[in-house]
Structure formats: C-alpha cells, structure tokens
Amino acid sequence: MPFRAIRDPLLPPLVAFAAGIALAHFVWFGFRETIAAGAALAGLAMLAWRRSRVLGYAAALLALIFAGVLTALLHQPRRIPKIDSGSEETVLLSGCVTEPPEFYEGRDQFTVDLAPHARARVTLHLRDGENPPALAYGQQVEFAARVRGIHNFRNPGAFDFSAWSAERDIYWNALMHTGGTVTVLPKRCGSALMRMVYGARTAALRRIEKLYAGDSYAIGMMQGLLVGDSTKIEKVWTEDFRRTGTFHTLVVSGLHVSVLAGFLLVLLRICAIGEIPALAVTCALTWFYALMTGWHAPAIRAAGGLSLYMLARFMYRRGRVLNLLAAVAFAYLLLDPAGLLEASFQLTFLSVAAIGAMAAPLLEATSRPFALAARDLEDEGKDPRLDPKQAAWRTEMRLLAETTTYWTRLPEKWILRAIAAGARLTLYAYDSMVISTVVQVGVALPMAVYFHRISLSGLSANILIVPLLALAMPVGFLALFTGWRLFAAPAEFLLTISRQVASWHARLEPSLRVPDPPLWLSIASVAALLALAFSMRRRALLRWPALAAVLGLFAILLFYPFAPRTDAGVLELSAIDVGQGDSLLVAFPKGPLMLVDGGGFPSFGGKPRKSKIDTGEDVVSPWLWTREIRRIDVVVATHGHEDHTGGLAAIIDNFHPAELWIGAHPRSAVYDALEAHARANGARVIERKAGDKIDIGGAEIRVLAPAADYVPDDQPGNNDSLVLRIHYGQKTFLLEGDAEAPAEERMLADGTLGPTDVLKVGHHGSRTSSTNPFLDIVQPKVAVISDGIDNLFHHPHQQALDRLAAHRARILRTDKLGLITVRTDGRRIWIEDWADDMQPYLLAAPRL
C-alpha cells in the first residue's frame, strides 16, 4: 500500500510500535535477537520498496514491531536497590528533598533522594497542635526513621503499587517516630529549574489558601483544579464526579492544559502578538505548567500535542486529529513505553481517537454544514457559494426573522443575530452530546476493566460540567496571577455549580459496577469499534451493522448477564489480603455469597485513621470483580473495629447485599453509620447471637458468639465478635473474627465447640487468642491468619504460632502468602494462595 494512500499515515506505524511494546510485556525476547530481527526486516523493507510497496510497507511495519520490543527492553526496570536494615530497626538517613511536603491531618509526607534513582517516601506523624517542618525542594536533610519496602495487596486484580512507585524511583516508605526531627543540612541539591518550578507551585498553593481562607472545600478543590495538588481533597467531595464520569475535569489533565493554552493565546493575541510568537510563548508556558503540576502523563501529552500543532502551523500545514494524536503517542512511548499499559494513556488515546475517527466524520456530515451556514446570516451574497441545503436553511432563518420582526416590531438585525446565536447554541449542544456519547462508548471497555464503572448520566453531565469548569479555570488562573478576590469568587461559584450538577446527576445515575469482562467480550468490543470507525469514513454499508454490534456489546457490558466464577457443590473460604485487617469471602455450594468484614485501617488511641485508600473500594471490590461477582447476598460485620468495618460501606454500595449481620455491640458512630448505610441500600440489618442456626446454599451456619446474655462494654471490643461455624458434608470451618480468650472461654463453657477442619484464627494471631484449652477442643487442621506485612502490632505473636504448631495445624498467613483460598467438596480440602500463583494443591495431611 503506497504511503501517500493512507489517510492518517502515522497511525499504522504507531499501532505496530505499540504492538511490539505490548508483546515484550507478555513474551520473553533476547536483546541481541531483537536487534538482529529488526535490522533484517528494516533492510528487507528498503530492498522490497522499489519492487513492491505493499511488501516493503509490510516489512517496515514488522520492523517497527521489533523496534517497540527493543524500546521496551531498553526501559526495563532497574534492579531494586537494598537498604541493610530490618523493618523495626531505626536508621539514620540523609538525602535531597525532591518533592516538597504534603501535609495530611496528623502527618507530613515528603520524598527524599537517598541515592541516584533511589527514593524514599517519608512520613512524619505529628503531635496534636504540632506544626510540620518547613522543607522545600533542593534541601539536603537528615533524619532517623524505620525503612520498609513498598508492598502491594497481593490479590488478583490488585493495583501494582510497587511497580508504579518504582517507575518514579520510589522504593521505600520511611516512617519517622512521632515528634521526630528533620535536620536541614547547609548543602544544596537538585536543579535550579526544579527549584524555580516548585517555588512557583508553593507560591500558587499559598495564594489559593489565602484567597479562600476558612473554606477547606474551596481550597482543596481549587488547588487540585489549578495546580494538580490533591492532598487536601476529601474523597467524599469527588464521589459524585466519579459516579457521573466527570472526575477528569477535576484533576490536571489534557483538558486543563488546553484551557490554559487557549486562555494564553487569546491574551497574547489581544496584546497584538503575532500567531507564531504567541504559539511559541504559549507552548513554553504549558510545558512549565506541566512541570509545576507534577509532570503527570496527561499534561505531558497535551503539551506535546500543542508543540506539534505549533510546528504544523509554523510550516503552514493543516493538522489532522488522528495524525497529531499518533505523533504525540509515538513520542511519548519512545520515552516511556511502560505508559502503554497505563489506564491514563489508554483513556486519553481512545478518547481522542474516538472523536477523530467517529465523532468528527459524523459531525462533518450533520452539524458542521449548518454551523458554517449560521455565520453571517445577513450576507445574502454568500448563499450561492454554499450547498443548496445550507442556502435553503439560511433562507428559512431569514424568513423566521422577518416573521418575528412583524409580530414584535423589534429590529430585524437583532432578531437575525439572536436566531443565529440560538442556532449555534443548539448545534453546540448537539455536538457536545455526540462527542460525549462517542467518547463514553469508545472508552467503556477500559473504564470497565480499570475502574469497573460505566456512567450513563455522564452523557449530559459532561455537557454541563466541562464548560463550567473550563470557564472556572481561566478565571481561577486570573485569581492566581493577580491575587484578587474579584476573580476568586466567580471561580468558586462556577466550582459550586459544577458540584451541584454532578450531585444531581449522581442521584439519577444507577448504582451499577461492572466486573471484569470476559476475554471474548473485550475482543468483540474492540473489533466492533474498529469496524465502526472504518465504516464512518469508507464503507457506508458496514455502518449500521457495526453500530448495532457496538451498541449490543455495550449493553452486554453494562448489564453483565454472566454468573460469578464459583464452583458448584464446593464450599469456599478466601482470606483476602487487606493488610492488617480482616475480609473473608464465603462461597456456598449452591451459589450464595457471604462477605465477612471488609478490611480497613486500625485506629490508634481511639482515633480513626484517615487514608487515601478505602479497602472496600480499592482492595476487596477489585478482587471480587475479577471473580465476575456483581452481588453479595450477606455481609457480616463481626464487630465495630475499623480494621474490620472500614471497607464495608463501599462493599454495600458496590454489591447491594440483601442482609447485613451484626452481633451485640455498644452504640457507636461506626455502627450507627454502617446500619444506616445498609438500610439506605435496601439491606435488612439482622442482629445475630449464639444459638442462631441458618441454612444457606447447601451448608449450615451456627452462631457461637456472642452469647444471648452478652453485655458489651462502652466501646467496641474484640470479644464483641460474631463467631460463625460453617458445616458442609464432613468438613467444618470456624470463623473467629477478633475473639480473644474471654470469648473462647465462654464458648468452651457453653459446649458449642468441637473439632474443626479450618480455623480463621482470632485477632490476627495475637497472644491473647487461640488459647491451649480452646485448641485442645477445636483441633484445627488448617489455621488461616489474616495480618499485614511488618505490622505495628507484631501479629501473629510467636506464642500463638507455637500453640498452633503444637496442635499440628497447618498455618497459612496472608502476610506471607497473600490471598488464601480453602475449598472443600465436603470430603476433601484444597488450598490455593497468591504466592504460588493461585495454583491449587490438595492438602495431604493424613487426618483429612
């Protein structure tokens, strides 16, 4: 195929190059072999080009595939550096501050270069009323801290946080003692450019705090909107934007860079600066802005796109959307091939590609002619040069203006201009709806895969929120530049209106979350979208069948008529890796599902620990979605501690349980909020107590604790825990929650305990649980302990481990193995764990 015959000539090379990067991720390639194969294909392409351009072009694309493989090999992760210290050992560290402090409630965080390409994220917990240390980029500091490696939650489907951090050269978390000190050394470090960039960033953040003093919502949201700093944004503030698919308007992205670029261009042109110089200045400032806002990939890609557009304008060439997109993507992947597999890159590329490949041709054929015809309606001499339909439409507009003038006696010129403005506004709404619909459908698959969301209300929410915040940004920038409240107030007003629009749409948005789609559905969706994009430009006959296929597959993805991946006739217990907390999935033989606790973060001194991570939303739910689970039948809150209940609100929202089981408990804000949340979602709240017997899904559950006459203390405690015994066939599972010695003694006194095959060990294997009298009766064959790596409580305690070992129990720990799954058909038991890549093995203990 001749190169000039391709409408967007950079697209096929980009696809070939990206295919090579993706191939290198899944298949092993040798470095020398890759170079040899790529060079041979490049030589073949040059030799074949003269005889057959089709063969030469095909060989060139194959050579680009190997070029992509080679690029991925050249950017392989570095060897992970090591620090010779234990997780509980305090060491003296020194390094260069490369990211200034981010102050959260009660703690200060900053990033330090300990060595070239080896950084640590430092956390300093502050006493009440204590001010964080005044640190800035480029300071050499010294401090004492405990150093720990960065770990993932080890469940299938979990976000690879350690790899994400390693790409940014961050390999450790350094934890300083409360009240620790940071010594600033006289030596300076870092680059002068980055000192200037971070200085501008700090000044912008402080100015926003001054402009919106006393309004934490306005401060946090405007800092995120204008400067890309999300440290002061509460997750609850952004939930409505997430649900309606408009969250992209709040974080610094290509939209923000484009708005800033447009604002600067208009300002410079008003100042009588020529187009090319104005573009050059705008381009330089957008690159500076991308640096100042954190050098995020979307901002980099937008700045790169603007640079290419400026170059095209300098050469007096008309840029094509898909060609420009391909050029930006090509340059970006050359520098960061790993970005190909990131959600940010894929969503950006697919959004713009959908607009260029599908929305643009559709608008060109529908609204574009009328938009052109709406210009200069008063100029009748323009009509003969237009298409007959355009000329007829202009005539009808003039007739409408004459009729309106006759009845209202207003000047016809005013009426004609009002009609033209109304027509342009209507066409804008139509264009926005088309673009929003095309983008929503185009990115539905990656949104389902990465975020398990498909927004329906986003079709109209984006039409309203995007222009509101696009207007708020330049007004906010003016407030930043001038420091005037005159501009800050309208920017805040536009932000408030946007929040109300998102809130209104969120109330209409159906609460649907989408599990991981089957492979065949993903492949079919991609193929249908490609067929539709192709038919929009070349094959009209394929257009309607392709559109029907796209919409049909979109409906399947949205409504997801697939059964969860569970085994019929098998009882399953999975201990999910939620760190130092508990979350268990129980799948019953006939299909019902029960989730016992939702993980969370332990509180200290009775104060709940705030975190950017919601274990229910960010840890438990993604694993459940990999199992194609969309609904949980029963959710159990064993007791009121945050490391068990912290994630349950998100679980209730995402999986709509029919019932929430609770035990005897003191009245507390945690339980009150959880019960209210469950009832608001249509779940029945049932208080369970010892003696209850429930037949569910072919198995039997007996509640062993708390006793019917149990009186809880004033505060939630471990011995409030619901203890459940599940019996199926010849096998028994015992789930203890956080039950300690007093609860175990009461169950022994009641005579409700007996031999157990699988024990979920109480209180994460603490010294105060799993007492010898208890184990003498229970005699567990398998002991599952849910605990966090290097946790501050030193769970599991060695005494508890020794007692379990003395009773010949096989000990399985989530801190060592990650996700642990135990299955039984009522006769045999199988065990799987994440550390063994979830390969099942049969527990071969003779007693089974």
Measured as a percent range, the helix fraction is: 40-55%
According to CATH, what is the topology of the largest domain? Metallo-beta-lactamase, Chain A
Number of helices: 28
Radius of gyration: 31 Å
Percent of residues in β-strands: 5-15%
Low-confidence stretches: 838-848
Structural class: alpha/beta
**Secondary-structure arrangement, i.e. CATH architecture of the largest domain:** 4-Layer Sandwich
Brief overview:
The chain is α/β, with parallel strands linked by helices and 848 residues long.
Question: Which descriptors apply to this entry?
Answer:
848 residues, alpha/beta, OB fold (Dihydrolipoamide Acetyltransferase, E2P), nine-stranded mixed sheet, seven-stranded mixed sheet, 28 helices, 15% strand
Protein described:
By secondary structure, the chain is α/β, with parallel strands linked by helices. It folds into 6 domains: 3-74; 90-190, OB fold (Dihydrolipoamide Acetyltransferase, E2P); 211-341 and 456-508, no CATH class; 355-450, no CATH class; 519-559, no CATH class; 571-842, Metallo-beta-lactamase, Chain A (4-Layer Sandwich), CATH 3.60.15. 49% of the residues lie in helices and 15% in strands. The chain has 28 helices and 22 strands. The strands form 3 sheets. The protein has a 9-stranded mixed beta sheet with strand order 12-11-10-9-8-7-20-21-22, with helices on one face. The chain has a 7-stranded mixed beta sheet with strand order 13-14-15-16-17-18-19. Strand 1 and strand 2 (107-115) form a beta hairpin. Helix 1 crosses helix 3 and helix 13 (367-373) packs across helix 14. The longest helix has 31 residues, at 412-442. It is globular and about 100 Å long. The protein starts with 10 loop residues before the first helix and ends in a 6-residue tail after the last strand.
